[in-house]
Specification:
Structural class of chain A: alpha/beta
Domain Glucosamine/galactosamine-6-phosphate isomerase (chains A, B, C, D): 24-220
Strand order of the largest sheet of chain A: 1-10-9-6-2-3-5
Order of helices and strands of chain A: EHEHEEHEHEEHEHEHEH
CATH class of chain A: Alpha Beta
Oligomer: homotetramer
CATH topology of chain A: Rossmann fold
Number of helices of chain A: 8
Protein name (chains A, B, C, D): 6-phosphogluconolactonase/Glucosamine-6-phosphate isomerase/deaminase
InterPro entries (chains A, B, C, D): Glc/Gal-6P_isomerase, GlcN6P_deaminase-like, Glucosamine6P_isomerase, Glucosamine6P_isomerase_CS, NagB/RpiA_transferase-like
Number of domains of chain A: 1
Helix content of chain A: 25-40%
Keywords (chains A, B, C, D): Isomerase
Largest sheet of chain A: 7 strands, parallel
GO molecular function, one term (chains A, B, C, D): isomerase activity
Strand content of chain A: 15-25%
Distance between the termini of chain A: 14 Å
Chain lengths: 250, 250, 250, 250
């Protein structure tokens, strides 16, 4: 685990975009799983600006790592739709380079990823409750690979409100997500964290025990985890953590 | 996670020795943490026979991953002594290539490993109770890095019996071990398993939940874990596990 | 460039087999281009003995790097036929894991290799005239990728004699080979050398200038070249070369 | 060999900076050899702006790959002085992360690089005569490792004029440079090219034979060479080269 702490959200976004750009400019096929949500908004803007329409990045393939379908509708799911808006469409990523996780293929997704050569990088955010991807306290088990989980209660309402104009009829009774087993199989992990409302969760992830109650606590067991956090989200970290994990010369 | 199932102990040892030989013949510095115990005896014999005294392997560095000191004695600890007998001495490994974990340096061991470039491979066995290295049910927490733990009860007696001629006076009240955090930071893991008395533990590791009650269950979250098991130890694995994890063409 | 010097041919074969076994036991797809000829005979015997019929190596794919067709006959070419006899058949390699370079596909071979993920290792021998693969003094240019070259004169007669029962009618007027550009694109190179009749060529390769007159002299420009040579073939190397390139602790 | 062709110099600089940023944000020690000259000016500006004073990049170590001393003066050489002006000083790189090649240490430089873990990336420009680093037509031999070469004639006058205020008294009779053997030993190469005066040289490098008369022609034999060129410098490339080498989906 390595940690970069930046002054603010803009710097977090900028430095995270540098890390991703390193993957985009490699001279071989690269497989990236990327996150929707609010945290990566500026990171994607930086990437889109950096890429500037060049198709020299056409050897890069994109995957979503969770999905909520619109019940009874044939349109694409919530996550992939958001990824299109935030990044894939403005960055002009070709359809052949977009690989969708859906209700239909989730049981075969790990095998497909392996056939594609595995994920080179997973870009993820951190929930204030310690969730990552669709791995949520109370539902997630660390041994889950790609999995279908029930969608209900507050989360179902939140999805209806934020993604479906409040229409509970469109909310399905389940969602799919890469579980901890599948996420940890990626070669490299990048966790981006911003804002004081994430400070408790980040401290738990870095300093706390590994527990399914805080699903992201498992990520620190990965041999190549980079966390880029702004100072607000790093506010509850101990001096010892900062000294131990912040990038420094070897 | 990949799994190779062999007919018997000899084949397990032979194929594991092939995997280790791949590291020994790389053309750069290689850092290996290796295990004592009964499981690797034949593997080490195969390696010693293969190496045959050539010092072309002198760029390979060896580390022990746990240690029990002899209380009140200045001699080397139990693990490093066993490693010398099993492998380091007959293989004529130079003293400069042997890096000892001890009571004195365990707090600095992770930093030293990082400075050395990190472990390229950890070779480990599996306990019938699901332990690995010194990570024991009831004591181990997944967030442990290199750690000092109490040595007492049955285990203390077992150590006295097997390693100290029954002399309980020589058994210290603690031991040191790389914890799950430190082990999972290695680039690659190799778990060797043999015998029907390991069959329950292996099934738990591969098919069960990730729980500190079966410490080795965490290993399946590593992106590069290879398990080489003989058929006796693989006897309780489901057909689904065998199909999913046994090495096969991509 | 790293160099391992062994006492004799048997040790050269054994240690080279260790290096190849490291690739065979990796837990991902591995692509190997392998050589026919006399030098690797014992290496293949060691590999076949080591593999022992286990199909845990079924993720390993094999390629030949040059080929001479039998003119006017529909049978397989000289190189792949020899590779089958020496290794592929006794090792029970599946047909799906054998990828043949032929007169028909040589123009597309580099693209195919790239699509397959590139070669992880090329195993090659050294000619007493400094040739490697089908890269022969007087014909080879360093900028050649996979190429068709004329087959004539002594070499045509030699092929007729050794591979075609002296029947010059079966010798085609050309052959195909991976040229230096294609060989150097592999991730790792292993050159095995045995016998005093190779001593002059090996000294040229390691100590001489880089010249198309000694095609293998280009190999030392590869960032990951391992040479395993027996003492007879290393007899003309200077003490300085031995000190500089022989494997040693970092 | 992969090729990215950009519209103009600014885009070349920007995309090259992305590639370098990928190295800067890796979570382990990274060793970079970097180039002085006019071509990288904007690239360094982009990097300095991107880095923005963060010392999260403090695990990155910098090396110069050639040097001309000021004769009879104790000041630092021409190359390292230029690198300080262009990048090292404004980027606030710590002195402990700067590793200087000089007249005094050039014979030990390869060994030191190997001890440091080898170069992860060499950033180089291309001369209109086909030179790279200090590897100049008429002087360079492909088998050169780090080497001292005579400095005379037009080049000596050019150095005096551009770097020493026209003072020929300060020009030494030699310079030191990493030769082709040492450069090719780096894990990855990045060649940046800009301007129509480089168009002939670039076409020779990509399409021509491998010859010491055009030293950079050897670079195409490296298994991981990325060329980023603006359209002016790529103007003489054939459609076939563009199709074959320009980054494209696998």
């Amino acid at each position: 685990m390595k940690l970069i702490v930046t002054d603010d959200y803009d710097d977090m976004s900028r430095i995270a975009s540098h890390h991703v750009l390193g993957y985009l400019t490699q001279n071989r096929r690269v497989n990236l799983a990327i996150t929707a949500g609010r945290t990566p908004v500026k990171l994607y803007e930086d990437l889109i600006s950096a890429i500037g329409g060049y198709d020299c990045y056409s050897h890069v393939h994109y995957y979503n790592f969770d999905e909520v379908a619109f019940k009874g509708q044939s349109r694409e799911g919530v996550t992939i739709s958001n990824l299109r808006k935030l990044f894939l469409s403005p960055a002009k990523i070709k359809e052949t380079n977009i690989h969708k996780l859906t209700d239909d293929n989730f049981l075969d997704f790990d095998r497909q990823l392996q056939q594609d050569g595995g994920l080179d990088l997973m870009l993820m955010g951190l929930g204030s409750d310690g969730h990552f991807c669709g791995n949520i306290p109370g539902l997630t088990r660390f041994h889950h690979s790609v999995v279908k989980l029930p969608l209900e209660g507050n989360i179902a309402e939140f999805i209806a409100l934020t993604e479906m104009n409040g229409d509970m009829q469109s909310v399905p009774d389940h969602y799919v997500t890469m579980g901890p087993m599948s996420v940890m199989a990626a070669k490299n992990l990048l966790l981006i964290v911003s804002g004081e409302n994430k400070a408790w969760a980040l401290a738990q992830v870095i300093e706390g025990e590994v527990t399914e109650q805080i699903p992201a606590s498992v990520l620190k067991l990965h041999p190549s985890l980079l966390i880029i956090a702004d100072s607000a989200s790093a506010a509850q970290l101990s001096a010892e953590s900062l000294q131990r994990y912040v990038q420094s010369p070897v």
